[in-house]
């Protein structure tokens, strides 16, 4: 087993991840129980240290309460462990996740290395009412930035993207409960603002999810992928191309940095205006298709490794 910090610019920052390799005999219930024991936001299980015939690795991701088809920091951290300890000559690591294959690459930056994943394009759903979200999250509606929509975006996990006006508004979030979609599923909330905690970044963010009650995540790659597509779709920075750094986890004393890129493709996705007229049932199946290609990157730090009892 390996413990790593992902989206970490230094040790004991970023998002904690436990990676279990080679326990092929474990049932889903055993994996879930171990993830609950670890109590990290996610724990991953790699079926074997040896790749499949196509060179990929089968990986399952669990929170303390459920299995996920995809999550960002587990994807980056697991690929980093595989390359570091089992496939050092690889220039790319292919992970087979619940949403399908996700390639992970490695970019040298001086003495550092940024690990990049390129998941499928997120899908855009319906807009949400600012007043509704404000009431759930414990802030005044005036703190929500009306220059961009509050909108559902999905990448196998469903988020509500919430633009705020200031760092003060971001820090003030106190969610008692989270919004639900049209089918009653609880949505995760990814709130962001154009002010940052420290110099050297473009946005600050917080992410809330439901696992035995509302919890906060210190760094969320899946939400980052949705945010990259959202920033491109709504031209938040004035253009479709996106290349930004996002700070997260500061309220939890786990400062994190997510690197986000987006490039516009040929097909058009559902626009913010169109999304408002799409029915809730139809919106769940709306896909960004080839409209926006997103990449999410971050640094990984090894904390510990050992054997399970």
What this model shows, in words?
By secondary structure, this protein is an alpha+beta fold. The protein folds into 2 domains: 2-105 and 299-305, Roll (Diaminopimelate Epimerase, Chain A, domain 1), CATH 3.10.310.10; 123-296, Diaminopimelate Epimerase, Chain A, domain 1 (Roll), CATH 3.10.310. It has 7 helices and 18 strands. The protein has an 18-stranded mixed sheet that branches. The longest helix has 14 residues, at 72-85. It is globular. The model is unreliable at 266-290 (pLDDT under 50).
Oligomer: single chain
Number of helices: 7
Distance N to C terminus: 10 Å
Main pleated-sheet profile: 18 strands, mixed
Low-confidence stretches: 266-290
Q: What is the rounded Rg? A: 18 Å
Identify the CATH class of the largest domain.
Answer: Alpha Beta
Number of folding domains? 2
According to CATH, what is the topology of the largest domain? Diaminopimelate Epimerase, Chain A, domain 1
Indicate the structural class: alpha+beta
């Amino acid at each position: 087993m390996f413990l790593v910090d992902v989206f970490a610019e230094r040790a004991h920052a970023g998002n904690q991840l436990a990676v279990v390799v080679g326990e092929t005999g474990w049932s889903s219930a055993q994996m879930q129980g171990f993830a609950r024991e670890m109590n990290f936001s996610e724990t991953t299980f790699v079926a074997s240290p040896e790749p499949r015939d196509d060179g990929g690795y089968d990986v399952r991701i669990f929170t303390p309460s459920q299995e996920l088809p995809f999550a960002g920091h587990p994807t980056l951290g697991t690929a980093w462990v595989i390359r570091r300890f089992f496939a050092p000559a690889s220039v790319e690591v292919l992970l087979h996740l619940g949403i399908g294959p996700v390639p992970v690459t490695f970019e040298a930056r001086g003495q550092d290395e940024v690990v990049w994943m390129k998941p499928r394009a997120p899908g855009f759903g319906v807009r949400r009412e600012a007043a509704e979200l404000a009431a759930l999250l414990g802030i005044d509606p005036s703190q929500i930035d009306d220059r961009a929509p509050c909108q559902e975006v999905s990448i196998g996990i469903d988020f509500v993207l919430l633009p705020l006006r200031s760092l003060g508004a971001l820090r003030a979030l106190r969610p008692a409960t989270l919004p639900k979609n049209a089918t009653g599923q609880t949505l995760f909330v990814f709130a962001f603002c154009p002010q940052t905690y420290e110099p050297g970044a473009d946005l600050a963010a917080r992410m809330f999810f439901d696992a035995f009650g509302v919890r906060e995540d210190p760094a969320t790659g899946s939400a980052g992928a949705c945010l990259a597509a959202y920033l491109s779709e709504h031209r938040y920075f004035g253009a479709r191309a996106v290349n930004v750094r996002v700070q997260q986890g500061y309220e939890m004393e786990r400062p994190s940095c997510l690197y986000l890129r987006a490039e516009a493709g040929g097909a058009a996705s559902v626009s913010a205006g169109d999304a408002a007229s799409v029915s809730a049932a139809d919106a769940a199946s709306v896909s960004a298709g080839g409209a926006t290609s997103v990449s999410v990157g971050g640094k990984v730090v090894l904390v510990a490794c050992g054997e399970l009892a």
